[in-house]
Write a structure and sequence with these properties.
Layout (H helix, E strand, L loop, with lengths): L7 H7 L10 E4 L3 E4 L7 H10 L1 H4 L2 E5 L10 H13 L14 E2 L1 H11 L5 H8 L3 E2 H14 L1 H5 L21 E5 L21 H16 L2 E5 L3 E5 L8 H13 L7 H8 L4 E5 L3
Antiparallel strand pairs: 1-2, 2-6, 3-6, 4-5, 7-8, 8-9
Helix pairs in contact: 4-9, 5-6, 7-11, 10-11
């Protein structure tokens, strides 16, 4: 992979013949460059053009809102983040949304009736035993749906909005930031995300993205401050891998407002992810 291009005219030449041809390219903080004037409705097309040129430009593209670049990391900061992202287990860090509440008879009955129907209340209580926990109940629901295609067909409306780019946000004005690295998981050196915990949250965010890239071909497309958007080259198979990935995404995106089993099913059909963590 080429070293990052340092001049706007060279980047412009690398983007010639793509949708980004003719767009204004200017240097920004932290040795980044910003491409402005992009039609938000053509966000993915613009990102793909910059990504295809990355072997030449040496820069990973990511969308942000205008004015969102506030930090220019030093070489030492980037080196430290690289080291941490390659060694840190991020999942013990993302714990803010992992309260596992006890569930009693009335709780299980209400939950199962709402999602699966009256006829599944008795099997749930018999198979789970009481009291149980919210996580155990959600996992039982997931396993039950995987084992019962007829029942699963009845809950499609509960997760179909999680598939693909349906949840992606568009804004009236955006900017495409060209980071001086081809390692997308180093983006937290320049960008901010509300969902990063205090302490070593930035390193955990970087480590999570590195894992997702290696395992699922996840590519960071946009960082909107409280929201992250990714594409994914590979989908998890139904079962433990999809369940695990859904739990990871919900740990980083604590405002997704869905059940883990809904997201786990959606991920097996989706080539795009959306994370949200609002104040």
């Amino acid at each position: 992979m080429a070293a990052p291009m340092r001049r706007a005219k060279h980047i412009a030449a690398a983007l010639r013949g793509t949708y980004l041809q003719g767009h204004v390219i200017r240097p920004e903080i932290g040795e980044t460059f910003v491409v402005s004037g992009i039609d938000p409705a053509r966000l993915l097309e613009a990102w793909q053009a910059a990504h295809l040129a990355m072997p030449v430009t040496g820069r990973w593209p990511v969308f942000t809102l205008p004015g969102e670049l506030h930090h220019g990391p030093s070489a030492a900061e980037i080196a430290e983040l690289r080291r941490e992202a390659q060694t840190l287990d991020p999942w013990p860090v993302f714990t803010r949304h992992r309260v596992d509440e006890p569930q009693h008879h009335a709780d299980v009955e209400r939950y199962v009736r709402a999602f699966l129907g009256d006829e599944m209340v008795t099997p749930a209580i018999e198979q789970l035993g009481l009291p149980t926990t919210a996580k155990a109940l959600a996992r039982w629901t997931y396993d039950t749906l995987l084992a019962n295609p007829h029942l699963a067909a009845r809950v499609v409306h509960g997760y179909e909005h999680l598939i693909g780019t349906r949840q992606w946000h568009t804004f009236s004005e955006v900017q495409l930031v060209l980071l001086p690295t081809t390692s997308q998981w180093l983006a937290p050196a320049w960008l901010q995300y509300h969902g990063t915990p205090s302490g070593n949250g930035v390193a955990a965010w970087a480590a999570a993205m590195r894992q997702w890239e290696q395992r699922w071909g996840a590519a960071l497309i946009a960082a909107w401050g409280t929201m992250l958007q990714f594409t994914a080259q590979r989908q998890p198979p139904p079962g433990p891998q999809a369940w695990e990935l859904a739990g990871q995404l919900m740990a980083v995106g604590g405002s997704l407002q869905c059940q883990q089993w809904q997201l786990a099913i959606a991920l097996t059909h989706s080539d795009a992810w959306f994370l949200h963590d609002r104040p």
